[in-house]
Amino acid sequence: MLRPGGRFVQEVHHRDALVRGWEQETTHPPYADGLVLRETRDWDAVRGRHTVRYLLTPPNGPAREGAPHTLRVYAVTELAALHDQAGLGLQDVHGDLSGGPLTIDSSLATLVSVRR
User: Fold this and answer.
1) 3-state secondary structure labels for all residues of the chain
2) How many structural domains is the chain composed of?
3) What are the residues facing 57 on neighbouring strands?
4) Contact assessment for residue 24 and residue 40, using Cβ atoms and an 8 Å cutoff
5) What backbone torsions phi and psi does residue 114 show, to the nearest 5 degrees?
6) Residue 83 lies in a domain
7) Is the dihedral of CA 75, 81, 86, 87 positive or negative?
8) pLDDT score recorded for residue 36
9) Residue pLDDT, tens place only, 70-95
10) Angle CA(96)–CA(27)–CA(12) in degrees, nearest 5?
11) How far apart are CA 23 and CA 111, in angstroms?
């Protein structure tokens, strides 16, 4: 448990930047062994869920699907409300762990809160 006055730092994917730079599909350059990785993405704006599916194609063999993953991506306003509900007072928001500004293009959001 965090004591009163203790700091809580949370770094997460920045939802706004994720949506702004959205790419439905990415095919990566072949790896040294010739394997090609293709990612396809889905965005559920209502649920705030980002799902990624993988297709791995080796140079000499059939393509196979990798295990997909789904992330719940929160807006900074949602995170601020969650911090407040948990008894944390939001002190600052940054675009990285170095204290840089949060911008629409920041891939990460870092929230700094203090336990009340």
Assistant:
1) CCCCCCEEEEEEECHHHHHHCCCCEEECCCCCCCCEEEEEEEEECCCCEEEEEEEEECCCCCCEECCCEEEECCCHHHHHHHHHHCCEEEEEEECCCCCCCCCCCCCEEEEEEEEC
2) 1
3) 36
4) yes
5) -125, 135
6) yes
7) positive
8) 97
9) 999 999 999 999 999 999 999 999 99
10) 20
11) 26
Asked if residues 66 and 39 have their Cβ atoms less than 8 Å apart, the reply is no
Of 1, 14, 6, nearest to 93 (Cα)?
14
14 within a domain of the structure (yes/no): yes
Tokens linked to 71: 């992330």
Residue 1 domain flag = no
Residue 97: give the domain boundaries: 7-115
Assign 99 a pLDDT band (cuts: 50, 70, 90).
very high
In a domain, 2, yes or no: no
Provide the Cα torsion 97, 105, 107, 89; round to 10°.
50
